[in-house]
Amino acid sequence: MNTTPDRRTHVEKNLDVNLIRTSHFNLGRRLAKGAVAVNGLVAIDGPPGTGKTTCVRYFAETIGIPSAIITMAARPAPLDMLRQMHRAITGLEATGTRYQMQRDLLPILNHWDGVLIVDECQTAQVMTMQQITWLWEESQQAFPMVLVGTGILDALARYPQLKSRLMGHAVFAPLADNVLLDTVRALDHRLQDIPTSDLLDHDRHACHGLLRRWAMTVRWLDAHCVTTTATSRDLHAIASLLPTLD
User: Fold this and answer.
1) Considering its fold, how many domains does the chain have in total?
2) Of the residues 119, 137, 171, the one at which a domain ends
3) Alpha-carbon Rg of the chain, whole angstroms?
4) Is the confidence at residue 15, as pLDDT, over 60?
5) Is residue 227 part of a domain?
6) Are the CB atoms for 213 and 180 separated by under 8 Å?
C-alpha cells in the first residue's frame, strides 16, 4: 500500500477556523479508515500543535459509525479509564469495581460497531495499557482503536504486548517550506495575500510550523477586528501576545 502523504492542501469550512487537510491529516485519516475497515489498532504520534487531535476528531465526526473519544488524564488508573470509556460509549456514568466495569463493558464492546479513539494515550501507565489490551483481546478485537499522543510510540515501547498489535502508525510534524505557505494561506482569507517574507517571519518568531499556533493567529485577527489582508504590523502585534514555547 502506498502511504506517501498527499502534498495537496484542502480546506473544510464551518469550523472555528478552516480545517486544513494537510498531508499529515490525509495520512492520519487514511490510517484510521484502514483500522475501521478491519477492526485494527493504529497510532498517531507527533509534537503538540501539529493537528493530531483535530484529525481524529474530524474523522470521528465524519466516519459514519459510532465513535467514542476518551482523553487520558496524567497517569490514569485502569479503573478511571474503564469508567471514562463506559461514559464515552454509552453516555451513562458507571460505578463499581474494576472487575464489574470489565464485565459490563465487554458485552457493550462486542455489539457496539463503533471506533474507540484514545487521546493523550502516552500518559497511560503500563497497567492501563494492559487493561486496554485485555479489553480488545477479550472482545475478540470487536472494535477498531486509534491511539493518539505526543510520544505514543515511545510509550508503547514500554508495553510491547500492545505495540506488537499495531497495524500501522503515522507521525505528524511541523510544517515547513512550500507546504507551510500553502497551508497558512488556505487557513484564512486574511493570510492569503500576505508577502511570503512576512509569513515566514511570523512563523519563525511565533508559530514554528505548528497549526495550532497559526489557528491562534487567526483568532487574534478576529479579536483585533482585522477584516482585510493582515499587515506585518498586525502579525508583529500578535507575535508579541502569543505565549513563548519552551
Assistant:
1) 2
2) 171
3) 20
4) no
5) yes
6) no
Query: How deeply is 7 buried, as exposed, middle or buried, from its count of CB atoms within 10 A (0-12, 13-18, 19+)?
Result: exposed
pLDDT for the residue numbered 144 = 95
Start-to-end CA span in the chain (Å): 38
pLDDT band at 2 (very low <50, low <70, confident <90, very high): very low
Q: Name 178's Cβ contacts closer than 8 Å, sequence gap at least 6.
A: none
* Burial of 171: CB neighbours in 10 Å, binned 0-12, 13-18, 19+: middle
Q: Which three-class secondary structure state does DSSP give residue 92?
A: coil
Residues 198-215 as b/e (b if ≥16 CB within 10 A, e otherwise) read bbeebbeebbebbbebbb
**Measured on CA atoms in the order 21, 67, 98, 92, is the torsion positive or negative?**
positive
User: CB count, 10 Å around CB of 145?
Assistant: 24
What is the pTM for the complete model shown?
Answer: 0.86
